[in-house]
Write a structure and sequence with these properties.
Jelly Rolls, alpha+beta, 314 residues, 8-stranded antiparallel beta sheet, 35% strand
């Protein structure tokens, strides 16, 4: 065999070896590539199957103008006056005289004019026979320690027996910021006002900087007939939302007066987006209660309250 033939055969063998190794390397690479790809695909598929793609439903925002809006209101606070005494956790007495901005005649006391008995709160206005107390009359003014923003506020009450002129019982609310901004900027919601020179009637009113009785611009229902207000208990309530206040008697469907938030509103015309607290009192005389004089023979005179309740839509 000559040298050229040997070299030729040797080169052919080398090429075959290189091609063989290249083929093996290619096969191995393909296996690894496709094998890994398939594995990754399976793992990705598994991962996709395990991913929770459920989307949370957005919270439902109730509209106070919906017909059934108040059906979902839940009781969040109340005083049923079932205990043996006035709850110090719920109420604080506001005391003193000085006319209370309305030329009223009573001197409010923290004892002797308000009691709980037989399941009701009784607030009594009396002629003053105590020489140590200034003024011709004493009474009680109770403020709730809790304050509230929006809700269905309902009070079941009976006015004093009608004997004559001079009484001014009220169930109402004031803005909790009254110490900072004063009245009427704090706002006032009168859930029930009664003057005894107008028997068998009740009144709803709203006061603010823009609308108040000192300017003669208060928002009011005027006198509403309620023939048994002095003889029977009635429910006095307000449905209070960020859009309106709707006042009712006995049943939430028996709306007697509505005050809607002004289209363009500010703190002067709508201070009612803040917290308010309850007030329960009997005033004597004053610029409204005493408009036709005070009959001193009508005392003692008692307003009874069965309960105070607050419902809110969650």
């Amino acid at each position: 065999m000559n040298k050229v033939h040997v070299l030729k055969n040797s080169h052919q063998a080398q090429r075959k070896g290189i091609m063989k190794r290249s083929s093996l390397l290619l096969l191995t690479t393909c296996y690894l590539l496709f094998g890994c790809s398939n594995s990754d695909s399976q793992e990705l598929q598994i991962d996709r199957e395990n991913v929770d793609i459920t989307q949370e439903e957005p919270p439902v925002v109730s509209d106070p103008d919906d017909q059934d809006y108040w059906n979902d209101a839940e009781l969040i606070w109340s005083d049923e006056f079932d205990e043996e005494s006035i709850s110090e956790e719920n109420w604080v007495f506001e005391t003193g005289g000085g006319g209370w901005g309305n030329a009223e005649l009573q001197n409010y006391q923290d004892t002797g004019n308000a009691v709980v008995s037989d399941g009701t709160l009784k607030i009594t206005a009396k002629r003053n026979t105590d020489n140590t107390i200034e003024g011709a009359f004493t009474s009680a003014r109770m403020n709730s320690k809790e304050s509230f923003r929006y809700g269905r506020m309902e009070i079941r009450a009976k006015m004093p027996e009608h004997k004559g002129n001079g009484l001014w019982p009220a169930i109402w609310m004031l803005g909790s910021n009254i110490q900072a901004v004063g009245w009427p900027a704090c706002g006032e919601i009168d859930i029930m006002e009664y003057v005894s020179y107008k028997p068998n009637k009740t009144h709803f009113s709203v006061h603010s900087t823009a609308n108040n009785h000192t300017d003669g611009t208060e928002i009011t229902s005027g006198a509403l007939d309620l023939d048994t207000i002095e003889e029977e208990f009635h429910n006095f309530g307000v449905l209070w939302s960020n859009k309106y206040m709707k006042f009712y008697i006995d049943d939430v469907d028996n709306i007697q007066f509505t005050f809607r938030r002004p289209t363009i509103s500010n703190v002067d015309s709508w201070p009612f987006s803040s917290n308010f607290y309850f007030l329960l009192n009997i005033a004597v005389g004053g610029t409204w209660g005493g408009l036709e004089g005070v009959d001193t023979s009508i005392f003692p005179a008692t307003m009874e309250i069965d309960y105070v309740r607050v419902y809110q839509v969650k």
